[in-house]
From TrEMBL, chains A, B:
<dbReference type="Pfam" id="PF12802">
    <property type="entry name" value="MarR_2"/>
</dbReference>
<keyword id="KW-0238">DNA-binding</keyword>
<dbReference type="InterPro" id="IPR036388">
    <property type="entry name" value="WH-like_DNA-bd_sf"/>
</dbReference>
<keyword id="KW-0804">Transcription</keyword>
<feature type="domain" description="HTH marR-type">
    <location>
        <begin position="14"/>
        <end position="148"/>
    </location>
</feature>
<dbReference type="InterPro" id="IPR000835">
    <property type="entry name" value="HTH_MarR-typ"/>
</dbReference>
<protein>
    <submittedName>
        <fullName>MarR family transcriptional regulator</fullName>
    </submittedName>
</protein>
<dbReference type="InterPro" id="IPR036390">
    <property type="entry name" value="WH_DNA-bd_sf"/>
</dbReference>
<dbReference type="InterPro" id="IPR039422">
    <property type="entry name" value="MarR/SlyA-like"/>
</dbReference>
<keyword id="KW-0805">Transcription regulation</keyword>
Length: 152, 152
DNA sequence: CAAGATAGTCAAGTAACTTGACGTTATGCG
DNA sequence: CGCATAACGTCAAGTTACTTGACTATCTTG
């Protein structure tokens, strides 16, 4: 993926829905990641965020996680390995299934989760301020509409 | 990045602007890439698309490209190597600077570019139909607003 | 014209995935 | 009940899309 320069919009560059969606998505991610790192969560990355989004605070069975996330179990395992090394999550043997493992947050992980929630709300408030309430609501509804599976 | 399952929205998953932007952006890219491959451009990938977006039809000096795209010159070189192998672009020595090279499209590349433009318009038309003209315009304006560099 | 900047290449390393092969534990059916 | 098969997790190796570092060739400037 080509990284976005944090510059004003270049009129020579392509302009269409896909481009604008990509730019806006990237801008959000960059802002979020920066704020997370600023909050002391240096281990934070985009792919890890994607995975953490699927791990509820109460924990989850690794197999369930694999089933939900939609990437290979090996990829998830590697991501979990990294997060475990960082001390964000831990894995316990599942008492109900000796093959299985339970993924849950450490205190460090829960703190990061809390910071993440706070930062998301802050960014969202910024967006609301910049766009205005009405357009912001329209944006949210439109994005939801586009994310829904297309009828064929 | 965790790959999105092409399924209906799961209410248990996180929901905020960033998430919706990401989903919508991903959906666009998936739709575009699928259409491109269906149009016979099997070499097409997201990172290549990002680079091609910066190469105008009239060609460009490789150094200028590097300056604009915002990733390392080695990364660009590797992407160009791939595209050259695929026969999408070609590199000529710059007659005005013996250090430099000029990147330009082959016929194959120009055909792909034309198909890409057509597909973009088709997707955009689909979005307009699904959202309605008014909301679509609001979406476009909002995305543009969010992509602009934030005042600090 | 020498010093330094610019253009491009080569090599090696990293992050985030992939597929394939494998051992261990659970399940369900004959 | 026993056994085939499926599910759970791990190990190993390969791919893509990048990165940094080191290097040569050419251009520019004081």
């Amino acid at each position: 993926m080509v990284k976005q320069l944090d510059e004003n919009i270049d009129p020579a560059l392509p302009d269409h829905v896909g481009w604008r969606l990509w730019q806006a998505s990237r801008a959000w991610q960059a802002e979020f990641a920066e704020a997370m790192r600023a909050a002391g969560h240096g281990w934070f990355s985009e792919s890890r965020a994607g995975l953490l989004g699927h791990i509820p605070r109460r924990g989850i069975r690794q197999a369930t996680l694999i089933e939900r996330v939609g990437i290979s179990k090996q990829a998830i395992q590697q991501l979990l390995d990294g997060l475990e090394t960082e001390g964000v999550i831990a894995r316990l043997p599942d008492p109900e299934d000796k093959r299985g493992k339970l993924v849950h947050y450490t205190q460090r992980g829960l703190t990061a989760l809390g910071d993440g929630d706070r930062i998301k709300l802050e960014i969202e408030r910024g967006y609301r301020d910049r766009l205005g309430q009405g357009p912001f609501e329209t944006l949210m509804a439109a994005l939801r509409g586009l994310a829904e599976r297309q009828a064929r």
